[in-house]
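Let's sit down with a protein and look at its sequence and fold side by side. Go ahead whenever you are ready, and we will take it from there.
>
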Amino acid sequence: LDGMQAVLFDIPDRKFYIFNIVFWPQDVFYLAILMLLLAMGLFFFTAIAGRLWCGYGCPQTVFADIFIAIERFIEGDRHERMVLDHAPWSLKKISEKITKHAAWLALSFAVSFTFVSYFVPPIELGDRMVTGHLSSANAFWLFLFMAAMFTFCGFFKEWVCLIPCPYGRFQSALCDQDTLIIAYDPKRGEPRGRVKKGAVAADVHGDCIDCSLCVHVCPTGKDIRDGLQYECIGCAQCIDACNSVMKKIGKPEGLIRYGSLNIFSGGTTHILRPRVVLYASILVVLISGLFYKVATRTPLEIDVVRNRSSLYQRTSDGKILNIYTLKALNMDQRDHRFMIKVEGMQAKLVIGSNPIQVKGGEVYQTTVSLSIDEKTATKRVNHFSFVIEDVDNPKITASRESTFIAPIM
């Protein structure tokens, strides 16, 4: 967009390009609002639909599923993989293991390259790799994320969700009896009883035939029939497995399904409840505030530093002089002309050129001086403001307070 990568976090130049807006270190306020917005969004959706993020949005879950799909494509289903793992080493086993790990490494490198490309443009990053001019930082982050992806998604998989991830531990504080979760219906399923092939389930048994398929497909190895547990990541694989069994034995689907604890106990679910309303209200305030701040954002920053070598100077014509270093940061991508003014006191502004021309994304630095007649000085410390204003668009303006020091006899 406008000759720049649509999303680029340029760390060396301290610029974040997000579509047609450039954010600078001075805009850290927006990052704080965004972090609060994401946290509150997580609370809101967890209160309504449980671990929706873990099951469908978390990169660890998504990429672990892709790694498992690759493993299934090369080595076969779960039973075939177990047989292969316990089989003696052979040419077939070695070739399949090498192929699987090579595919995992290729995917890990692709993800790592994509991630680093948010910080270094991909064409430039690829050129550095081909020509052997990768910086140590580029090489470090490429290797780190490739190794992390390969290790966490290829070997640890859902162990990452069980051990280091804290979300499962505090989800109970966000859920209640009305939260939509994945659960087993004990009223319909109990008592459990196995059914032989071709036979019809006895009336004394519930619909659950105790096939344990829901446990086998669970990434974390938990039995959903034991109730809601922090290990459940909400992936819904147990629902698919159970429904396939219900079809085979001629029973209605939904023995394991989405629902609230109130529904499974025979009650009804209330979507609008205090915590949901509170989270939604905070989300609306944060989203509105973020959009307002971005919409009214002024792409201009000014900084003023007094001359530290002397508080003031006397001139031969009876003037008191204060000298300042003024910096104007143009946070826009276009060039601008700015007029520098003084508000809050009557003083003569002396500057090399006014208005000043500041290129897009650059800092303009100049030395300015203010002078007043010594006879008019009534206070030792005089407060005023430097104001910088766009010549073509007066709405783009910024100001910075400063002080004028004068000798008082």
Q: What stands out?
A: The mean pLDDT is 90.
